[in-house]
Design goal:
Order of helices and strands: EEHEHEEEEHEH
Distance between the termini: 72 Å
Low-confidence stretches: 165-175, 199-210
Structural class: alpha+beta
Number of helices: 4
Length: 210
């Protein structure tokens, strides 16, 4: 119950709008799934209601990054929504193979800590991979399949096939360790895979030499 009619995460369904927390007041809502005091309360369904109302409800819909509270996870996997959020932040969405595989790259505003980010350039301006609007595991730092070198090769591949100016690595980390025999991460098979990946866009045929 609400103590002194105060809405808090303990008694209400709450969400992040951008970086601010907003909670639903049961007294001013008619959505049963969003009321913690109602038998039909369901946070997941409530989130989809709120997402639909804020993003896709006519020409006056709210432009805000909506996330679950408190873990900031996405309400649902929605390529259209990720594309909108990426674009609203001045970014570019790069699509690969199908609608559910894409990478969002944002321009460097100078405010972000890019020490652990994948950095590249677009028209000689620094950009970085924004993982929150990206759905390719190779490019998501928290994924077990994260691989910086393969992600950079993939960005080059997508950039070329989409008639976007080629992307180049912006920082000094230009050595591909997978292809460097002196590196502990050297892997001949993966290196050949990457070479083939890029070679296809340049009409280069790569053969293994035993």
């Amino acid at each position: 119950s609400k103590k002194f009619n105060v809405v808090t995460p303990n008694n209400s369904a709450c969400f992040y709008f951008d970086e601010k927390v907003f909670c639903i007041d049961d007294d001013h809502s008619n959505i049963e799934e969003c009321s913690k005091s109602h038998v039909k309360y369901n946070y997941e369904i409530c989130g989809r209601y709120v997402l639909n109302l804020t993003r896709f409800n006519g020409p006056n819909h709210l432009y805000a990054r909506l996330r679950n509270y408190p873990d900031k996870s996405k309400i649902e996997l929605n390529p259209r929504l990720d594309a909108e959020e990426c674009k609203e932040n001045g970014g570019i969405q790069l699509k690969y193979q199908n609608v559910f595989q894409y990478i969002c790259v944002l321009p460097d505003s100078g405010k972000e800590d890019l020490s652990n980010k994948i950095i590249l350039t677009v028209d000689e301006k620094p950009y970085y991979v924004y993982t929150d609007n990206t759905n390719i595991d190779l490019c998501i730092e928290s994924s077990q399949n994260y691989n910086k070198e393969q992600c950079l090769f993939l960005i080059n591949l997508i950039g070329r096939t989409d008639n976007i100016n080629p992307y180049y690595i912006y920082n000094d980390n230009t050595n591909i360790e997978l292809c460097n025999e002196t590196s502990q991460r050297y892997n001949k098979e993966q290196c050949l895979f990457l070479i083939n990946l890029i070679g296809k866009t340049d009409d280069i045929n790569v053969k293994t030499i035993n």
